[in-house]
Amino acid sequence: MRFGSLLVTCLMAAAPARAFELGAQDLKVGGYVDGGRFQLADSSSNGEILNRMGAKWALDKEIDDNWAFMASLHWMFWRNQATDLALFHIAGLKFDSDLQGSLSYRSGANRFRMGLYEFKYNPDSKNLGEYLLRSEAYPTIIENSQGKDLLSYSFSRVSGMEYGLDFPLIRQTALVYAEQYNIPVNDVSFAYFASGGPTYAELQVGGALHRRFRFGKATRTTNLEQSLKDYVAGQGLTTQAVKLMLRGRLDLGMIRNGSPGFTLYGEAAMLGLRNDSLFYKHPMERVPLMAGMDLPTFGFLTALSMEVEYLKNPYYGRKYSVGDATGSNFSPLPNLNQDEYGGGRIPDYTKDDLKWSLFLHKSLNRWIDLKARFASDHLRLLAWDGDYATGEALTRKTGDWYFLARIEYHN
To answer: What CATH number did the domain enclosing 302 receive?
Structure first.
């Protein structure tokens, strides 16, 4: 059982009765319909159609001047992935749900939040970035959406608590959370963020002790051959890691005329400080770099953003998957097949080093929005059974791409 589900249940039980004295302004409802298509070099899945529709209910209640309570429920139906066609007995429309809840406190410069919720430290990122939490160092894996809403702004799904101390020019956040996305879930990590400068010209640094305490399902077997198991033991490699991050933003519109406009932003991270003698010899192969910009559209669009990413990782993002009843197949080494590792040869996969994403948003009125994304990123779709996919990103080359469009309603 994920810590997050238990934590949401406890928060709802502990919330004061006033939190459930609801008015019309406290309840938000919405729905959406998505449609998209993948253009991939792999002919077996090229042209795959993606269809999704969903509904959301969100409660955002101020209990008093200091305390607030949030809960949300997201239901969705979908039909995607060419692999579903082979699974004829379960192919068709799928159903899943997503639950969040948090309790927050604010007084002066102090703020506190705990629960299962979407944590975001990069306010500008639409798709790429957020590396400090949305990544694995050993093996080197970068994620996109960590929720089940594929067109939401990038965030990290956490189950835990944070404390923040905000002043006009210095802002700090400390976070402790249990992993909810990458298997094994429930491992506990710590992160710290410090920002300086006005919010329109901000510089932020961060660090994380990733998987510092292991509460996830114990690993009792791996797919590694004995020589590689011996190598891991001898090198002291582990999925635990120290990660560092640097982020900045500059809103030229605020500087020029005091209103948001043309914004430049970027992020860099160091995913793990440990090197070994074979697989992770070069630290720069674990340094993702992202740059983005919000472009002015002079009222034609609500938002137009472009992001690019570079990571010279010689292994593309093939994740370890859940194994048989004897345990799970996880290792700090990259997940290589025999063709790549034949004769002990280390691959150098460079076709996915460059990633990109274009996001468009148009508000038609206060109730209806149109959104679209064109991207070659790290998207992994839900598996046929509704759980998070554990395989490879669909766009495995820079030239692979997809588009996803949405019509969305909300009150």
So the answer is: 2.40.160.10
